[in-house]
Amino acid sequence: MAITIALAGNPNCGKTTLFNAMTGSNQFVGNWPGVTVEKKEGKLKGHKDVRIMDLPGVYSLSPYTLEEVVTRNYLISERPDVILNIVDGTNIERNLYLTTQLMELGIPVVMAVNMMDLVAKNGDRLHINQLSKKLGCPVVEISALKGTGIKEAADLVVATANSKDKMLPVHKFGNELEAILNKVESKLGAEVKEEQKRFFAIKLLESDEKLPELLEYVPDITKEIEEIEEQLDDDAESIVTNERYQYISSIIKSCYEKKERTNNQTLSDKIDKIVTNRILALPIFAAIMFLVYYVSVTTVGTWATDWANDGVFGEGWSLFGLDIPGIPVLVENLLTSIGCADWLQSLILDGIIGGVGAVLGFVPQMMILFIFLAFLEACGYMARVAFIMDRVFRKFGLSGKSFIPMLIGSGCGVPGIMASRTIESDRDRKMTIMTTTFIPCGAKLPIIALIAGALFDGAWWVAPSAYFVGIAAVVCSGIILKKTKLFAGDVAPFVMELPAYHMPTITNVMRSMWERASSFVKKAGTIILLSTIVIWFLQNFGFTSGSFAMVEDMNDSLLAAIGGVIAPIFAPLGWGNWKFASAAITGLIAKENVVGTFGVLYGFGEVAEDGVEIWGSLASSVSATAAYSFLVFNLLCAPCFAAMGAIKREMNNTKWFLIAIGYQTGLAYVVSLVIYQVGTVFASRNVSIGTVTTALVVIAAVSGIIATMARDRKAGKSIQCGCDCKDCGGGCH
Ligand code: GDP
Ligand code: MG
Questions:
Q1: Atom 18 of ligand 1, nearest CA residue
Q2: 422 CB under 6 A from ligand 1?
Q3: E strand or H helix at 83, and its extent?
Q4: Closest residue by Cα to residue 404 from 386, 425, 387, 378
Q5: Is 400 helix (H, G, I), strand (E, B) or coil?
Q6: What is the rounded average pLDDT of the residues 319-334?
Q7: CA–CA distance from 621 to each of 44, 574, 593, 617, 624 (Å)?
Q8: Which of 285, 268, 270, 291 is nearest to 502 (CA)?
Q9: Distance between CA 89 and CA 71 in Å, rounded?
Q10: What does the DSSP 8-state code read for residue 242?
């Protein structure tokens, strides 16, 4: 008989490690329908008919985060045969909170206490027989990392699933609460199965907002809530939470023996004392990030990208003195030798290989970066980064974890966007995906150099100002988006766990790197391929002397025609000129194309990276303000196809993808408009109606932002950490 096992546990409890150990390579990675949460499924080694689901890591089954919703919806509606609850043995008290909730679902539970190697090392002891008796479910000790106890756990789970009289774990609350629960259970409709009644009754008492999505009939239990609140003098939700903790501490007392520690500090605590130290935290963080960045973006990374772009997808490269031609060279020779038509040759070489190659060229660099990220994530340092940066980032509606994607995004937006996967909260992740590409990436640097050189005499401030515009766009977007309906609603209660430091395994790090890299390569094969073909077509075809054909001169191409049609849209930004519009379009393939396109359009053919040849022509066609507005537009608007592909992939939802691209382009338009209009006034001291309107809009927007920030501060919403929890009043870190 087919059996389904669900792995449930807190983030970082070792679920994925156990999942990998239990399934080996027999696994499929996907997404839960319509959301960005990763879904992993596999078959238990040696059992063809035992399916294992790796559920998202959660601290509780409340409906605050997307992960919690995904996990609980799965458990409630799919009803796996057994829940394998993984508990971090070094953190058992906190982990049991989720356990108490899993036990209410009416599904058999097997508990695997993980990290027993660390527990033993700390000198602590766990009495599992006692624990099993108290919880009413089987318990095994395992170490997913060292591979001990995994076979026993698997056998136990299969045996539990196959046993006839299923033992359901139940824990009892205090008498008053149990009495009320009984009353609430009797009010539930017939749709609720007997074994699920307890779960729904408790959720009703907790005033769970998402119940209407799960139940057709939600009974009114105001009276019961009033009764228990009166009896125990607290609000119903807190009563349930308190009783859970009381229950947990009664278990811990009798089952867990903590070794007396001389200074009560584990190695992790000692490391954290330095790493998250008030003064040292930032310098250490900066040093680590510098190292990661230095290796994966500049030194080894540059070498890898050059090898891929100029070697494999370029002229060729050499290995031990052996010259290996690049793919374009090979293909060109092949196509010429078989006498392939010119247009087809151009499509394959310039269109497909040129376009997709430009994107795939980033893959080696990304793989290096992903290895670092996977390592930092698995060893537990990423959680500390979030902790360190959170104070700053919370202020404008982003999470501390947004910092890493943005830092990486300054090299290339694609891995930056993909790095946002480490952010658990869906809301924070979406926000990060939408704003990461505002930070100028490496490919935007040539545009900056071009504009600075052509119109500002190479002034020193142009490049830093581009970064400043990027950072300001991120900050303002955070503040603005937070106020929209899309990102409104309860900010998830801020739960931050600092897992103990671990030495990650090579297989886990490599696997995580490979998952990310391969999903990017897949993207290059679809959306990016299609887009490059379309642009190639637009660039190379057009109407010449009355007929539609391939054109020699890009001036006659469809791209130029489209540039001409859309140019008026950009007139208010100061560059309503078809050459500029066309350059912005080709920038969608890769931002460095902008400079190249200007080269072609101004009749210079190939130009240097900073386009020094065309500085004169550019300077004579637009004003400095207009050029700066063009620069800003290209910095902020929809990124290149590769990055758009990454956004689509990470959003996993077309609507959100369009929202992101639309927002970026809209913001780019508005900011460039403001820059041009205001800049023109300063330059010419000439006030037009357009300028006045723009000025009014800007004043309104800025004062709106300031007012909302002030209101938040006044309302006592913790600006510090975004946390509204009662215990800390916002000062938990
Ligand atoms: P998940 O978030 O629950 O999927 O947790 P992971 O499987 O990614 O594990 C988090 C970290 O704990 C990784 O660095 C693992 O190598 C480490 N880890 C997992 N199981 C054990 C274990 O039994 N002992 C030790 N020492 N480390 C473990
Ligand atoms: Mg995991």
A1: 14
A2: no
A3: strand 82-88
A4: 386
A5: helix
A6: 87
A7: 67, 11, 19, 6, 10
A8: 268
A9: 22
A10: H
How is residue 217 written in tokens? 């009939």
Contacts of residue 665, defined as CB under 8 A and 6 or more positions apart, other chains included, come to 637, 638
Contact 137, 169 (CB under 8 A): yes
Q: What is the pLDDT of residues 257-295, one digit of tens each?
A: 877 766 667 788 888 888 888 788 888 888 887 787 678
The answer to whether 240 and 205 are in contact (CB under 8 A) is yes
Above pLDDT 70, what percent of the chain?
88
Report in angstroms the alpha-carbon separations of 660 from 21, 34, 268, 481, 647: 38, 16, 39, 11, 8
Q: Closest by alpha carbon to 114, among 265, 9, 257? A: 9
Single pTM value for the model: 0.58
The answer to whether the Cα torsion of 112, 113, 118, 120 is positive or negative is: negative
Residue 268 Cβ contacting ligand 1 at under 6 Å:
no
Residue 610 — φ and ψ, nearest 5°? -90, 10
Residue 157 pLDDT class (50, 70, 90 cuts) = very high
Radius of gyration, CA atoms only, the chain: 29
Q: How far apart are CA 227 and CA 437, in angstroms?
A: 53
List the one residue out of 305, 290, 297, 508 whose CA is nearest residue 416.
Answer: 297
100 in ligand 1 pocket by Cβ < 6 Å? no
Nearest 5 degrees, angle CA 55-CA 60-CA 61? 75
Residue 705 and residue 477 in contact, taking contact as beta carbons nearer than 8 Å? no
Q: Does the pLDDT value for residue 120 go beyond 70? A: yes
Q: Is 40 in the pocket of ligand 1 (CB under 6 A)?
A: no
Residue 17 Cα: closest atom of ligand 1: 7
Structure tokens at 607: 């130009």
Nearest CA to ligand 1 atom 25: 115
Sequence-distant (6+) residues with CB within 8 A of 671 are 469, 473, 632, 633, 636
Cα atoms in the Cβ-side hemisphere of radius 13 Å centred on 317: 14
C-alpha span between 125 and 122 (Å, rounded): 9
